[in-house]
Design brief:
The chain is mainly beta and 74 residues long. It is built from 1 helix and 5 strands, in the order αβββββ.
Length: 74
C-alpha cells in the first residue's frame, strides 16, 4: 500500500475488511464502505467482537470518528 496521507490509507482499504477499535475498548470488524475527513466511517456486515469471539452482528453501522482509536486491515 502506497499511502502518503492517512486518508490515502483509508481509501486503499475501501471495500475491504477492517478492524476498528474504539475509545471504549470495543472491537468491530466489517467492510469499510465510506469515510469522511473527520474519519466518520460506515461499515457493512459489521460485527462486534470480544476476546476474538463474535458478540453480536450489527449489519451496516455508522461510527463517529472521534470515538475511533485504530483502523487496521483485517
Amino acid at each position: 500500500m502506497d499511502a502518503t496521507r492517512p486518508l490515502d490509507a483509508l481509501n486503499a482499504a475501501r471495500n475491504k475488511k477492517v478492524i476498528v477499535e474504539t475509545k471504549s475498548q470495543k472491537q468491530f470488524i466489517g467492510t469499510l464502505k465510506a469515510f469522511d475527513i473527520h474519519i466518520n466511517i460506515v461499515l457493512d456486515d459489521a460485527e462486534e467482537r470480544e476476546a476474538g469471539e463474535v458478540k453480536r452482528k450489527l449489519g451496516t453501522v455508522f461510527m463517529r470518528g472521534d470515538t475511533i482509536i485504530l483502523i487496521s486491515p483485517a
